[in-house]
């Protein structure tokens, strides 16, 4: 006789952090000294220092590597990757949009870890990505099927339930709220097809434009 699965257990499993996350290309590149950055440490923590003008960098090469580092949980790798992503986005202007297809796998992989600290970091990076370039929002629309499913799972997850009391609350962030904010930014900057595609992947999402 086959053993019946407990529906509640199955649902809770969707929120479980994934273990044995594969090593990041970012860590390997950093350890080989292939990245044009140095790290200054002081009482305030780790600060990233670029060895070249950021604007001169090949974004097609470096931006995906730093986005891949968003999955890091060990220091100083996590902080370096996070700071590097935002530094690159701050200086990338329209170069950012052309790299979007190469960022989908790193974004999806980071969200799929279901590690709330990583998810919060990645959602903030996605928001910055969209706001960094007038073309990035529309460039992301064809990839909603890859990056929105995990957001759909966690969108209405109460942050004070069980083990969800963690990074998001410590930072004054609720993961569900951060997901909602991200979806709104995607809709607002994704063009006329954004809402219908978000709604298809996240049925509980309500438009901030049409309502």
UniProtKB/TrEMBL annotation:
InterPro entries, per database record: Parkin_co-regulated_protein (IPR019399)
Annotated region (Disordered), positions in chain: 1-20
Which superkingdom heads the taxonomic lineage of this protein's source?
A: Eukaryota
Molecular function as annotated in GO? Hsp70 protein binding; Hsp90 protein binding
Among Pfam families, the record links this protein to:
ParcG
Designated name of the protein? Parkin coregulated protein
């Amino acid at each position: 006789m086959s053993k019946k699965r407990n529906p509640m257990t199955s649902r809770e499993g969707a929120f479980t952090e994934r273990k044995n996350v594969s090593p990041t290309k970012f860590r390997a590149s950093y350890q080989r000294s292939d990245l044009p950055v140095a790290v200054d440490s002081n009482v305030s923590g780790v600060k990233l220092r670029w060895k070249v003008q950021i604007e001169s960098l090949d974004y097609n090469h470096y931006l995906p590597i730093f986005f891949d580092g968003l999955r890091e949980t060990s220091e100083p790798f996590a902080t370096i990757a996070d700071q590097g992503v935002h530094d690159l986005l701050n200086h990338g202007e329209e170069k950012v949009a052309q790299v979007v297809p190469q960022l989908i796998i790193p974004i999806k992989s980071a969200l799929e870890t279901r590690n709330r600290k990583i998810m919060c970091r990645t959602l903030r990076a996605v928001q910055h990505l969209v706001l960094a370039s007038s073309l990035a929002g529309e460039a992301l629309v064809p990839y909603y099927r890859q990056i929105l499913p995990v957001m759909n799972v966690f969108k209405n997850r109460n942050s004070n339930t069980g083990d969800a009391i963690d990074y998001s609350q410590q930072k004054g962030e609720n993961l569900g709220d951060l997901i909602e904010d991200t979806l709104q930014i995607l809709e607002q900057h994704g063009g006329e097809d954004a809402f219908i595609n978000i709604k298809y992947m996240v049925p509980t999402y309500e438009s901030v434009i049409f309502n």
